[in-house]
Amino acid sequence: MELIEAIILSVLAASTPLLLAATGELVTERSGVLNLGVEGMMIVGAACGFGGAWLTGSIIVGALCGILAGTLMSLLFAGMALGLAVNQVATGLALTIFGTGLSGLIGAGFVGERITPAPHLYIPFITNIPLIGRILFGEDGFVYLSLALIAAVWWFLYRTRAGLIVRACGDNHVSAHALGYPVLRIRMYAVMFGGACAGLAGAYLPLAYTPFFIPGMTAGRGWIALALTVFASWRPGRLVIGAYLFGAVTILQLHAQGAGIGIPSQFMSSLPYLATVIVLVLLSRARTGGSTAPAALGTVFVPDR
Fold first, then answer.
1. How far is CA 70 from CA 12, 40, 192, 235, 252, in A?
2. What is the DSSP string of 173-223?
3. What's phi and psi for 121, nearest 5 deg?
4. Model confidence pLDDT, tens digit, residues 110-169
5. How is domain 2-285 classified at the architecture level of CATH?
6. How far, in Å, CA of 293 to CA of 275, rounded?
7. Could you tell me if 166 and 186 are in contact, meaning their C-beta atoms sit under 8 angstroms apart?
8. Do residues 9 and 1 lie in contact, with contact meaning Cβ atoms separated by under 8 Å?
9. What region does 122 belong to: left with phi over 0, alpha with psi -120 to 50, or beta?
10. Which of 22, 42, 92, 207 is the right S-S partner for 202, CB 3.0 to 4.6 Å?
11. What is the CA 188 to chain-centroid distance, rounded?
């Protein structure tokens, strides 16, 4: 029972940054913008989040610093991809490269420092219930926030008029513009939301997952978040399943290495990324049922003057 509980808790912790980053990217892509700079926004959010928490001693301030850093990075992307109509793929890749270098510069002075990680919820008697107590009522605030955020995004996209307008911009920006909606402004807000979520996901790593900062600590999670959006067919409900599935693959390969299974550790470490590639190949070969990508995804839009 203790081993099962430990594995489930580890899966929840490993899945939370994936779910946060993928939620923001889902909204961004639903508006018709393909931002491949999630990894860059996450790593800058991790550096700024840790720096804010270390300087002030507050996890909340650290999380806000991560959100602000991710948002500012997303505005840089929006200025290029939306304002100047630069190719979105090239801009996103450049943002990741820039973010990787910038995070090293920002976090250079914090390497080797440690902070007190985010506290976990504790309800007397209830949290102590075997197995389900710590899983349901003993997590840190980021875990509950990620689930609340995905529920709010589902409600926004499918139960509000504003969400319908966002999806309209992603499916047919010409028609949305003809109806009088400010497509570029809507897309900018969606990109900013995606950047804020990516920054928060990056800040989660040093604030709750590991209480220290090291360069490159996102370790490709931004790319997995991008793949999760495709895996979920751009639907919030499926995104939760995908995030916890990939989180489980990440954790189980660590437990397999600890158990001494006779498989090279390098291969075990590559399993999360190998699973990502396999899932994308299977989805591309069987697109029956489910949602397809927004029709205008990645397409540059220049409104008529």
1. 23, 9, 8, 23, 30
2. HHHHHHTT--HHHHHHHHHHHHHHHHHHHHHHIIIIISSB--TTTTTTHHH
3. -65, 140
4. 998 999 999 999 988 888 888 888 889 999 999 999 999 999 999 999 999 999 999 999
5. Orthogonal Bundle (1.10)
6. 21
7. yes
8. no
9. beta
10. 42
11. 18
